[in-house]
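Hi, here's the filled form for the chain we discussed.

Project: internal
Contact: R.S.
Residues: 426
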Amino acid sequence: MSFRLALSMSVLQTGASMVLSFISVKITSVFLGAAGVGVLGQLQYFIAMSLGVIATGMNTGIVRLSASAAGDAGAQARVLSTVLRMLLLAGPPVACVIALLSGWLGPRLLHSDAYDDALLLFALCYVPGLLGNAVLARANGAKDYAHVAIVNIGSNATAVALFAVLCPVLGVKGALLVAAMGPALTFAIAWLAKRRRAWWPARPLAHGFSSTDARAALAFVPMAAISAVAAPLVQLLIRDEIVMHSGMAAVGWLQGVTRLSDMYLNVITGVLGMYFLPRFSEIRDAPTLEREIARGTLMIAVGAGSVSLLLYLLRDLVIHLVFTAEFAPMRDLFGWQMAGNAVKVVGWVFGYLLLAKAPPLLMAVFEAGMAVLLWALGMLLVPQAGVLGAAQAYALTYMVYAVVAAMGVMLVLRRMRRVEAAGVVG
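And the returned structure, exactly as it came back:
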């Protein structure tokens, strides 16, 4: 599959997702208010963190190992069987812990004891969420970009429909219930959409368990767990600090500008995940890798930079059209947030190459360092500047991220050239 197809599918997916996200943002801002949007954001970060601690590393293993075993259907089926078995073993205990701690988590995470049922519902949806993400990872490894787009658009459309039904009736609780069942929606749509796909075995668990594949997949878990857990956890800690200094409404303003960012950053993550991670994994020579890096960096930097600048210039109109008057103070966040988005996507290109080529343990240290930096800057700047300090911490962190990741890429390319010069390619 070509870069053009990956980009086309990602643009289609993101275009649909942006329309759906605008509708979702409008519904939630009208019926929940700024404080309610902030609470919804807290739960969404917790869901991402809880699923990511297991799923992200395993899914990276599926994509990378499947790409490395291109043309060997038996090896790819064995990788999938191995990872699915590990997910089914690890998922239920985590779901039980979430259910048992729901009464304790509610007041601390959502700042109310009235939303425990949303956490219980998420616990029920936890294992299906892991399996749904595994299906998407296998489609990604097989470069079936159409399947990935169908699942993401379908799950987003279903969630928006549920928001439209439940938010006017149940308010914040309705929005939280929709977010909690999101993983199960992804699973249902992914499972149905995979039918008659050549890359999905008829009996996915029947291809045995490979200790070699298990170790290879588990090698990505520390890095992915840090990335998946640390980023949402740090956001939760920073947002708790914002609540202390500026109130929950300020968290809603930050969540609003973050959701706007996600609308177009998703096209970047779509291209990186669908095309660049498998492509970087299969490239064995430095010149080809350099060309892919140059093409990806130029296209992604220009695209994301242009959208970021446009959103900044039209921020008042965007707030008026998408949100309500209660969200007007978020205009002050746009400058730092959009600057952070522009440098973030450049860092992502370099980061995905490191994910494909660098030792997983080194990537774990890198992700942990960036999370600590974001937390430290947030704790320093929020008490001084309020919610604006969170946007400043975000932009400054990703400036450092891009520079350090670029240095890592140079080291990877130097190592590849050294190996090629010695006559041992790959």
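Let me know if anything looks off before we file it.
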